[in-house]
Model the fold of this input.
Amino acid sequence: MRPTQTPRTYRVKSFGCQMNVYDGDRMAELLAEQGIAPAAEGEDADLVVLNTCHIREKAAEKVYSDIGRLKREDGTSPLIAVAGCVAQAEGEEIMARAPSVKMVVGPQAYHRLPEMIRDAAAGKRVTDTDMPAETKFDALPRRRRSGPTAFLTVQEGCDKFCTYCVVPYTRGAEVSRPHGDLIDEAKRLVDAGAREITLLGQNVNAWTGENTKGQAIGLDGLIRELAAIPDLARIRYTTSHPNDMTQGLIAAHGEVEKLMPFLHLPVQAGNDRVLKAMNRSHTVESYLRILEQVRAARPDIALSGDFIVGFPGETDAEFEDTLKLVDAAGYAQCFSFKYSPRPGTPAATMEDQIPLAVMDERLQRLQAALNRHQLAFNEASLGKTCTVLVERKGKHAGQWLGKSPWLQSVHFEADAAVGDLLEVEITSAGPNSLGAVARMAAAA
Ligand code: SAH
Ligand code: SF4
Ligand code: F3S
Done:
């Protein structure tokens, strides 16, 4: 299309965390409401939204190569909007470096996309990285579509300022969405077919609100209310911060049946000096104590975490402490990363940046340990009976894929449909997935 035409088709590509996936879906809904249709698979779109992530180096580089790749053989480009956290952090630089980008829109401003598209279609280049007082959520269309699993952003932003992290700068301060809006959005998602909802927040367990009686409640209160929605079968939440892990939320794991036995609780490192330099404001011991309490409330809970290796100044002995923590915690799965200096964060200018080769070696050792734990956790599921939520068809005829309560991927053959809750027996276990045989339809 030529730059002066209104786009008829769009494509949204999201990178990074689940909240970006949620935002990407909301942008798609907003564009559809404007009469812009999703581009068919394999076809050129008139408008492309790159919904970017800034958490680690390669993420930003990927954006520039994606922009380059959007150029067509005849030299034209679609109308390109860069959204998400790179847009927020490096909007000006993107505008200067990539002339084919016509719109830069931050994570708190994307409800303004329709006006921006009108301006861009008229030949202007527009940037909106405001963090406006009005919330984007009020301006977004109501939810009408959902698969069997859905994300629901309940909290956004971060006030924790870990010294390595860009999120407080790209997403802004901690804000909780109002209770009534969340119950409403959850009900609409369930009406549209969601059986499982994952509550999202950069610090989801920092969510606070007021219920209809005017009482102050935390995330556990919200979870208890959502559990009362009859056709909602499963509730999950992510990502939590150890400091916001309240006794109420821990207790909910033992009391709310629909709350799945899974907790993602990032720790980042296993040494108190490193944690302090990271400004994590918890210790190894206080973290392990939380895991102990959660296990007491829900003995079968699957635990997950995030780790960074090679934070500036991390010694070999301090890294060994991370391996010890991994063994002490007994994770079901984890994410681990090499430290990446982010512009504007305090850690980026700290002394003793760790050489890449050292980080590579540490990451390999850490991942070997984490993989060992993950396989052991999966093997311990052998012979168990559990319920899976059927998410999609598998590769072979008659094969389906779903998730166990512990977030393991399970494949099985059955007479099933997407959205079914099926009882299965686990018959094989690999590092990344389980095999099962169907038993009978579980009561929803
Ligand atoms: N709010 C969440 C996670 C946000 S980012 C929390 O605090 O737990 C997701 C993960 O990316 C972090 O947990 C951390 O492990 C990793 N991460 C963040 N900044 C990073 C950096 N500069 N380099 C490497 N990994 C980083
Ligand atoms: Fe980043 Fe720390 Fe906030 Fe998590 S808690 S988003 S790691 S600053
Ligand atoms: Fe990335 Fe922003 Fe999420 S930096 S991880 S998209 S909050």
